[in-house]
Amino acid sequence: MASVAKNRFFAVATAGLLLMAGAAQAAPSCGNNSAGFQEWVQAYKQQAQAQGIGSRGISALDGVSYASKTINADRNQKSFKYSLDKFMQVRGGQTIISRGRAQKAQNAALFASIERRFGVPAGPLIAIWGMETGFGSFMGNQNTLSAVTTLAFDCRRPEYFREQLNAALKLVDQGTLSSNSVGAMHGEIGQTQFLPLNVLRYGVDGDGNGRIDLRSKADALASTANFLRGHGWQTGAGYQPGQANFAAIQGWNAASVYQQAIAIIGAKIDGE
After folding, report:
1. Cβ atoms 247, 237 nearer than 8 A
2. CA 61 → CA 125, 165, 262, distances in Å?
3. What is the DSSP letter of 189?
4. How does pLDDT run across 198-232, given as a tens digit for each residue?
5. Which stretches within 175-232 are classed as H helix?
6. Domain ranges in the chain?
């Protein structure tokens, strides 16, 4: 009888393994709509675990859903095709300059501290802050994990966003990101809109409370300065096109109009 029970156990276990393998094989490698998304997510758990993602991060995938609004936003990034003048108009460049000067005055100690620490002046940081979230007034309302997982599944840029997804799951493991955190449509986080991988690489504690929280003004601005320094920012050098630090600004965003807008707005705020 013991032998029969043992054989039944192995038969059930083998069947379970075959079912799991079949499910993994049935999952698509990517997709252009929601079809196959949940199957892909279940299969991806095994890949994530193999890359060192912990149980908290793996479990967070149970709550993700296909983010149709993220896909629509990804397919319709029209503003980067504008001329520089049109881009500045659409993004409210003059408003950012006037409000940015006020922000610089109100947060003088914070910006002085960041410049001492990272060598980055207030102007470009405020320009990024203003253009990304209107100085923290709107940081997005899309579930971050659903957005990043959807883009990792999407066939347009899967490898890029699978790196972002792994980073997001590591942030969940660390307690820096929760499964219900919200942000921008592509999974950007906080007051200056960091993608998850950049939070891992460049996120710093700017307010001294021992945590990295990109919804904190001080953390977000210090992390942005750290990002620019990590992309070659040289203390005291200029940041206009053709100057040494413009390359660091180019690291922030691939669109040339965005890069130029940061330089223009930053210089106006810094009084250049």
Report:
1. no
2. 33, 10, 36
3. B
4. 999 999 999 999 999 999 999 999 999 999 999 99
5. 196-202, 217-230
6. 1-272
